[in-house]
Protein: Abasic site processing protein
Amino acid sequence: MCGRFFLISPAERLRALFRLKSVPELRARANIAPGSAVPAVRHDGQGPAFFMPQWGLVPAWSKDRDMALRLKNARSETAPGKAAFREAWGQRRCLIPADGFLEWPGGKGPRQPYGVRHAEGEMLVFAGLWERWYDPTQTVPRALESCTILTTAARGQLRSVHHRMPVMLRPEDFEHWLDPATPAERLPGFMVRFPEAQLTLAPFPQALNDSRVDDAALLQPAPMQEAAPSQGSLF
Structure:
């Protein structure tokens, strides 16, 4: 899955990577959580365009926003057939850039986040879907644009931390992924081409467990936190 990620690269790097006409100045963010607005790229009818959807998809037919946090991720294997994602899969795909993401293994003991990055410092780009929703309770509804990150079975060393990981795309596939004219049967092929051997995995500071902590200085390998030994009875 993908529950948090970080983006500290400047706007110019995004502009060059996606061949965008313009990108607003972005604040470095070390702990992006669902519910917040995230930088993303979509096709605007003429080419790639920058936008800032809310992370957590709200289907166009939804009566309210309540399901947004439940739809922060979508399983790539089943998304095309799910009512919440079916139309976006065909017409509203997006790209979500990151410098890396955080993942937590299960099990007992201290909750230890792991940071995943590209071994050569390249940006990671997640495959996503986006939607536009209007609040039916408002007299003059305002559009809410939201997105979800597609996930797939974890590969390589990531399997040691979690059984799912975000779908990551190669730059040569960006244009095809965004283009609504790309046949649906070609999409699964783009989602398996990213070489997982290019990813690095390391334990990160436990301070990042708190989504309110947003310090880029913490995005560094940290010693593993050992579980505290249980204390026996004194008598």
Remarks:
- The radius of gyration is 19 Å.
- The longest strand covers residues 124-134.
- Residues 227-235 have pLDDT under 50 and may be disordered.
